[in-house]
Design goal:
- By secondary structure, this protein is an alpha/beta fold.
- It contains 21 helices and twelve strands.
- The chain starts with 6 loop residues before the first helix and ends with a helix.
Length: 463
């Protein structure tokens, strides 16, 4: 697969390369394309790539790094860089042009934390002749924050820039799928619902010559040699070791719509008081979960918080595979595929809401600077609420994944109007009401009555 969509990021790397010595931190969740970005930038440049394996001791790592360093820089035999100090000495005193990448850098916290403090000292004392562009990357977002961003972090303010690589947008994914022969809108939607914006999965899609959504399920997930069969388990084991089963339970609970602290506690069999450290790991370290509150609540005071999975493949795994893991391990793939077919519309409803909310937020951000969702303890919910406090106006929108008749659309709008009165502050605002759906019949008539209507094609820029 060709390299996609990271032009602005490459421009940043190129600028820092031209003003060496430079230190760049690249972070972002797993499989988002950090390594691919770095390797793309390294093409046609003298460069070295080091990977920190947390299962190896510092002595073994330094021995490996020494060999790579000597080969890459063509150092004489008498130069030895087989411990932290000598390795960093060579890097920071080398006077040639070189790009050095250290991947999964945060794992030094486990392997040997002194490497990080040694790097701080060497970076502060580097010579004026140093022509090093050092790129440090890591997928443990919270750990990178502890090393570089927090005020007491050992490498605080040492980085020239911190680049957080985001998953591809749905538009970028659709363009990429077009390139590899997927033209049908439903096929593209289903693949995005399955894989989100994580580029790694689309590379596998192309590598295994998948022809569409159903083929991807069969080749990448539901067969004995499926490359994604153990993806989620392997990630959780690597990050959390013996405790991975508890994280499994939490991810699965959220995948199946248990979003409040008490609901997740009940399903995962972890007491509510014990859950916060697990959420910290899933939110700040892995970056696959997010905590939301109703848009009208005050963040530090709200007691109506909910937890949602941001990673579509983790959602899929937690919903369809983990609850039936025995069947999956036994190879009952036909049964599991049938369940996916049966439950797919229900499962993807919330993902569709998230996609539409993100798209409409980008479209309306200038008019409604504050956009989110709203709910109360009685079970009332509104998918999108936009607030413009300065102009004293509010926009509320319901999202439906289906095609709506005019009658159904009007019923949804009527119900939404009824719920508006429960939103704090709405009584003093000018409130507009709208609906987003796959398609809405009688759209003109509904709009003539003062309601807003968006169809998926409007948001995607397709018809």
């Amino acid at each position: 697969m060709k390299f996609y969509n990271r032009e602005r990021e490459l421009e940043l790397l190129d600028m820092l390369y031209k003003s060496r010595p430079s230190l760049l931190v690249v972070t972002g969740k797993r499989r988002v394309g950090k390594t691919e970005l770095i390797k793309q930038f390294m093409k046609n440049k003298k460069s070295l790539y080091f990977f920190v394996d947390s299962n190896k001791s510092i002595d073994i790592l330094m021995s490996e790094f020494n060999d790579l360093l000597k080969d890459g820089l063509r150092l004489p035999d008498y130069v030895q860089a087989n411990n932290t100090k000598t390795f960093l000495d060579v890097l920071t005193t080398y006077e040639g042009d070189v790009v050095v990448a250290i991947d999964e850098f945060q794992r030094f916290l486990k392997v040997d934390p002194s490497f990080i403090t040694q790097l701080q000292k060497h970076w502060d004392m580097q010579s004026d002749e140093c022509r090093l562009f050092l790129i440090i990357s890591g997928s443990s977002i919270g750990m990178i924050r502890k090393i570089f961003i927090e005020e007491k972090a050992p490498l605080f303010k040492r980085a020239d820039n911190i680049l957080t690589l985001k998953p591809f947008t749905i538009h970028e994914v659709f363009n990429m799928l077009e390139d590899i022969g997927i033209k049908d809108l439903d096929e593209k939607l289903n693949l995005y619902f399955l894989f989100g914006g994580t580029i790694y999965y689309y590379r596998l899609f192309e590598k295994y010559q998948c022809t569409g959504f159903a083929d991807a399920l069969e080749k990448l997930i539901f067969n004995e040699f499926a490359p994604l069969g153990n993806e989620v388990r392997d990630v959780l084991i690597e990050e959390f070791g013996k405790e991975h089963a508890t994280y499994y339970e939490i991810v699965s609970a959220i995948s199946r719509g248990r979003c409040s602290l008490s609901e997740i506690s009940d399903m995962s069999h972890v007491s509510a008081n014990s859950l916060p450290p697990y959420f910290y790991d899933l939110i700040d370290l892995l970056g696959i979960v997010e905590h939301r509150i109703p848009i009208t609540d005050i963040p530090k005071k709200s007691k109506k918080g909910r937890y949602f999975l941001k990673d579509n493949f983790f959602r899929f795994y937690g919903y369809f595979i983990y609850p039936m893991l025995s069947q999956y391990m036994a190879g009952n793939y036909v049964t599991l595929m049938e369940k996916v077919t049966k439950d797919w519309n229900h499962f993807t409803g919330r993902i569709f809401e998230d996609v539409c909310r993100d798209l409409i937020a980008k479209e309306l951000i200038d008019e409604y600077p504050k956009i989110g969702s709203w709910w109360n303890r009685k079970g009332d919910e509104i998918d999108v609420v936009g607030i413009n406090a300065e102009e004293n106006k509010m926009l509320v929108i319901e999202i439906k994944k289906m095609e709506l008749s005019e009658r159904s659309a009007r019923n949804i709008l009527r119900s939404t109007v009824e719920k508006v009165r429960f939103i704090k502050g709405s009584s003093t605002m000018q409130v507009s009401v709208g609906v987003i759906a796959r398609k809405v019949h009688g759209r003109k008539s509904i709009e003539n009555d003062g309601f807003y209507v968006w169809e998926l094609g409007d948001l995607m820029g397709v018809k």
